[in-house]
Amino acid sequence: MRPSGRQTDEMRSVSIETNVTRHAEGSCLIKMGETHVLCTASLESRVPPFLRNTGLGWVTAEYGMLPRATHTRMRREAAQGKQSGRTQEIQRLIGRSLRAGVDRSALGERQITVDCDVIQADGGTRCAAITGGWVALRLAVNKLLKAGDIVSDPLIDPVSAISCGIYAGQPVLDLDYPEDSEAGVDGNFVMTGSGKLIEIQMSAEGSTFSRDQMNQLMDLAEKGVAELTAAQLAAVK
User: Fold this and answer.
1) Is it the case that residue 205 has pLDDT exceeding 90?
2) Phi-psi region of 94 (alpha: psi -120 to 50; beta: other; left: phi over 0)
3) Using 50, 70 and 90 to split pLDDT, how confident is the model at 171?
4) Which residues are annotated as a binding site?
5) Whether the predicted pLDDT of 85 surpasses 90
6) Distance, CA of 167 to CA of 204 (rounded, Å)
7) What is the average pLDDT across 192-202?
8) d(Cα 92, Cα 111) in Å, to the nearest integer?
9) What pLDDT is attached to residue 206?
């Protein structure tokens, strides 16, 4: 039924390669099927002005797609002079999702910026960015702990995200582009490794959906997040 031949509750193959860049304190290349995202985490000994002298740290994110990440070339947003609304919405989602898993008091007055650059897109780029972004964040925090710059681990729980939707009338896990572009219902689920919800983005793209269908999608999301958490923890061992 699915274009990829996967079962309704089957995710695409997931791989996470760490330490893929030389200079960033944390980095990984996450591949979820044919969606590939480079994630880096950079430490800075400063915080935004509204957090100065509060003792709290900050985690923020930036997101972008390379011009040929998609089927046809896109203009660089820098060449257009501004970010699209989609880009701004996604990077804010990534930032607040990652912050939900951080004890900002334990982080201290420093900022970690997570950059997520989509090399190749085939659906689910924001979910891959959040999942890989946490891995890069984990690696950067490990360096702070090893150096003795912080005394307790500020990362409370892994954070990852997965898409679920209703395609051809069936709830399915981890939509690729052919499914995403035709799904009647599309959703993104951001959760912690312990199964707590951070954010749900759900919309009826072509048809409405019932409470029962919503529950089915939640069940699929929990399964997907459990698999992603296992991949994250294996990557940062």
Assistant:
1) no
2) alpha
3) very high
4) 86, 124-126
5) yes
6) 11
7) 97
8) 15
9) 83
Range of weakest confidence among 61-65, 82-86, 120-124, 156-160:
82-86
Query: Is the dihedral angle over the CA atoms 6, 190, 82, 48 positive or is it negative?
Result: negative
- 3-state DSSP call for residue 135? helix
Burial (CB < 10 A; 0-12, 13-18, 19+), residue 28, is: buried
Contact 199, 190 (CB under 8 A): yes
- CA neighbor of 29 nearest in space, from 121, 21, 159: 21
Token pair recorded at residue 10: 């089957």
Residue linked to tokens 């996604």: 90
Per the DSSP assignment, residues forming a β-bridge with 118 are: 37, 65
- pTM, rounded to two decimals: 0.97
Separation CA 183–CA 207 (nearest Å): 9
Virtual torsion, Cα 162, 92, 152, 234, nearest 10 deg: 30
Sequence ranges of the binding site for phosphate: 86, 124-126
Residues 35, 105: Cα–Cα separation, whole Å: 34
Helices (H), 57-158: 77-80, 85-99, 104-107, 125-147
